[in-house]
Amino acid sequence: MINSPIEFLQAVDAELKNAVERARAILWYASSRSQSEGLTTAEITDVMETAGHAKQNRARLDTLLTRDKRYINRVPGRSQWRLSAVGKRELDPVYRTVSPTPVTIVVTDSVLPRALVTGTRGYIEKVTHQINGSYDCGLYDACSVMCRRLLETLIIEVYEQAGRTDEIKGVDGNFLMFSGLLDVFEKDKTFTLSRNGTKGLSDFKSLGDLSAHSRRYNALKADIDRVQSGLRVAVEELLHLAKLK
Question: All domains of the chain, ordered by start, with CATH?
Answer without folding.
Answer: 5-95 (1.10.10), 114-241 (1.20.120)
